[in-house]
From TrEMBL:
GO terms for molecular function: UDP-N-acetyl-D-glucosamine:N-acetylmuramoyl-L-alanyl-D-glutamyl-meso-2,6-diaminopimelyl-D-alanyl-D-alanine-diphosphoundecaprenol 4-beta-N-acetylglucosaminlytransferase activity; undecaprenyldiphospho-muramoylpentapeptide beta-N-acetylglucosaminyltransferase activity. Gene3D superfamilies: Glycogen Phosphorylase B. Belongs to the glycosyltransferase 28 family. MurG subfamily. This is UDP-N-acetylglucosamine--N-acetylmuramyl-(pentapeptide) pyrophosphoryl-undecaprenol N-acetylglucosamine transferase. InterPro entries: GlcNAc_MurG, Glyco_trans_28_C, GlycoTrans_28_N. It catalyses: di-trans,octa-cis-undecaprenyl diphospho-N-acetyl-alpha-D-muramoyl-L-alanyl-D-glutamyl-meso-2,6-diaminopimeloyl-D-alanyl-D-alanine + UDP-N-acetyl-alpha-D-glucosamine = di-trans,octa-cis-undecaprenyl diphospho-[N-acetyl-alpha-D-glucosaminyl-(1->4)]-N-acetyl-alpha-D-muramoyl-L-alanyl-D-glutamyl-meso-2,6-diaminopimeloyl-D-alanyl-D-alanine + UDP + H(+). One of its GO terms (cellular component) is plasma membrane. The keyword Cell inner membrane does not apply. UDP-N-acetyl-alpha-D-glucosamine binds at residues 10-12, 125, 181, 293. It is found in: Cell membrane. It is a peripheral membrane protein. Keywords: Cell cycle, Cell division, Cell membrane, Cell shape, Cell wall biogenesis/degradation, Glycosyltransferase, Membrane, Peptidoglycan synthesis, Transferase. It comes from Helicobacter bilis.
Length: 360
């Protein structure tokens, strides 16, 4: 059996692609990954550690947040590139194709539809993406962990490391600030403002500052007189106040080290935090398409399993009030509920569903 997985552009979509690729590898399925050249796709999968049997990177273009003419230009480019995808699908004798969304998904998705190959979609967010909305009528099944009309509900595809590092929290000793690999200025500023108050309470900090703002953030902590760790192992020694870093491939271990987290609300990050049992305050990225990060986080807020502040609210909040609210959270109750909610067979469910469809 040969399955194509297409999509990406950003880390959330790519994390799903990787989880599906690893499950296919586990089941002995030959895979073709079709990504793009403009996002993070090659950084993730154009290397020896890729879970895919074959990879291809086409010149797909984002349609969202473009001008009217820009949208049509991007759409025309993607349709042209989809002919290359169609050729790849034929060369690799692909039996089914699943899109994980993101602008990199356009070429492979159109290629599969034009080839009349059984086509499937995974929607990662609580608000449907524009491309997925366009392609949903052509999909044999539409997978998601959020409620949608005519959806096949499955657990979110999460790397097993986050479950292996899962633990119940009961005491607040370490707070993690995660702004993503590119960083989040609002979260970086919040961490710097909270740090003196947290130090008074002997609470340590793990801080992903992102590549863009890493140096400035590091210097700001030094100027405030904090004792910074040189590495994760140095931080684990217990003698340092803060470990600040730009990017890490060991996020499961970093989450395991924290008792509370302040984070953006991309779907993959959200479900990784759930899987790890880590209580979180979400600050959604305000410019995400259709404000989907807000609605992702709201799915946990509605269950009383997280805190949520918009970026505007967090910029105006009294920092002492916020510190007090964080230290009064019932970590144990929330952590236990998150662990109960988490399910770790999302990728397996999706691949088994596709195999069953092809079998029938």
């Amino acid at each position: 059996m040969n399955i194509a997985i297409t999509g990406g552009g950003t880390g959330g979509h790519l994390a799903i692609a990787r989880a599906l690729g690893e499950e296919c590898k586990k089941q002995g399925i030959t895979t073709l990954y079709i990504g793009g050249t403009k996002g993070q796709d090659k950084q993730w999968f154009d290397n020896e550690s890729t879970p895919f049997t074959h990879t291809a990177f086409l010149d797909s273009m984002p349609v969202v947040n473009q001008s009217f003419f820009g949208k049509w230009s991007a759409l025309a480019k993607n349709i042209t590139e989809s002919l290359s995808a169609k050729k790849l699908l034929k060369e690799h004798n692909i039996n089914a194709c699943i899109s994980v969304g993101g602008f990199s998904a356009a070429t492979g998705s159109f290629g599969a539809i034009f080839s009349r190959i059984p086509f499937f979609i995974h929607e990662q967010n609580a608000c449907m993406g524009s491309l997925n909305k366009l392609l949903k009528p052509f999909a044999k099944s539409f997978f998601s962990s959020f409620e949608y009309p005519n959806v096949t509900l499955t657990p979110y595809p999460i790397n097993s490391d986050f479950f292996m590092k899962q633990r119940e929290r009961d005491t607040l000793k370490t707070i993690a600030f995660f702004g993503g690999s590119q960083g989040a200025k609002a979260i970086n500023e919040l961490a710097l403002n909270l740090a003196p108050l947290l130090k008074e309470k002997n609470i340590k900090i793990l801080h992903q500052a992102g590549k863009i703002d890493y140096e400035n953030t590091y210097k700001a902590y030094v100027e405030k007189g904090f004792n910074l760790a040189d590495s994760m192992q140095d931080f684990k020694s217990g003698n340092k106040d803060i470990f600040v870093f730009d990017f890490s491939r060991d996020m499961a271990e970093l989450m395991n080290m924290a008792d509370f987290c302040i984070s953006r609300a991309g779907a993959s990050s959200l479900w990784e935090l759930v899987s790890n049992g880590l209580p979180t305050l979400f600050i959604p990225y305000p410019y995400a398409a259709k404000n989907h990060q807000y609605f992702n986080a709201k799915s946990l807020i509605d269950k009383d399993l997280a805190l949520l502040y918009t970026q505007d609210e967090i910029s105006r909040i009294d920092i002492n009030d916020l510190a007090q609210k964080i230290t009064q959270i019932n970590l144990s109750a929330i952590s236990k509920s998150l662990i109960t909610m988490a399910q770790q067979n999302g990728a397996e469910c999706i691949i088994n569903h596709i195999r069953q469809y092809l079998k029938n």
